Amino acid sequence: MTRNSELQDFLKSLPKAEHHIHIEGSCPWDIMARTDPQQFDTPPPSWAGDYRFETFDDFEQLIFKYVVPWMISPERYAQTVETLFKVRREENLRYIEFSFAGIALEFTGLAPREIAQAIRAAVPQDMEARLYIGLHHSGFSKDQDRYLSEILDTPEIDGIDLHGPEEFPLRDWSKEFWKAAKSAGKALKAHAGELSGPSSVREVIEDLGVTKVQHGIRAIEDPSVMDLAVQAGASFDVCPISNVKLRNVSDISEHPLMKLEAAGIPCTLNTDDPFIFGNTLTDDYLAVAEGLNASPKQLAQFARNGFTTADLPQSSKLETIAKIDSLLDGYLAATS
After folding, report:
1. Can you give the pLDDT at residue 4?
2. CA distances, 139 to each of 86, 90, 99, 170, 171 (Å)
3. CA-CA distances (angstroms) from residue 121 to 31, 116, 124, 153, 263?
């Protein structure tokens, strides 16, 4: 499939936001291969455009092969974030919500604040960033109360997310902690409706108070869950290339993104784990353009959604949306 260079230029010029990206899944391959060429001698096979994971466990095995040996210190987190922003700056990213994995605290022995401060120090001063920590459904294997208390007491952490294999129904500890986090002023997210069915989307909205759902795509299977999401004012942070490579949709042409958006659920486009999937944010926009026949107007709407659902002052949102509208008008005039 030939990619339209004019459309690519338009997409790269659009101010963009990203709401769903894992820091551990954004490892800097060039630095990794240069630092330890024996350990990191071959990039992930999942970079291939036609690659498909057989199971989610296969995906996690690549995490253990590449990410766990690399993400062992605050300095490595900082390097990863610095490289991530270098790439995203080239794509005109203006705002990001990203997360690091709570399970990394147990793997590395680091404290939440150590990692969070290293990440914060690596964020460019002119970039708006909101940092989340992602917790697995089962929580921590030990010292859970201490970890949860430290998370709430770490001001560098803006919010919490629910990560990992989707194991529903929710455990009582997560329902309690999401309430505590909200009381502490933390923002709330949860992964749902990716590996599990639409009832998981219902659970995170009703039981965790989440309105920023990560993925959420299987809500399409239950009209009542779709209605709930609309009534709750929920948005879905969708990762099209990730969804295809993990076989959560059979093909990009079958992705429910456009139906979710048309139903009144604002959707944003995101990369999820760009080191594992070998994608950029522009790639995901192009995948939607090519696989779902999304028009430039529709693609611009996804970019707008990234700012209307962002944690930004209203004046900043309106200024950026006006820029998107101007670029769209210019592109349509030039290509008509």
Report:
1. 83
2. 33, 37, 16, 11, 9
3. 19, 9, 8, 18, 40
**Topology of 15-295 in CATH?**
TIM Barrel (3.20.20)
Q: What pairs with residue 131 in β-bridges?
A: 98
Q: What residue spans define the domains of the chain?
A: 15-295
Across the 336 residues of the chain, what is the mean pLDDT of every consecutive 10-residue run?
A: 77 97 98 97 97 96 96 97 97 98 95 98 96 97 96 98 95 98 98 97 98 98 98 98 97 98 98 98 97 98 98 98 98 93
pTM greater than 0.90 (yes/no) = yes
Dist CA 69 CA 27 (whole Å): 11
Q: Which residues are catalytic?
A: 194
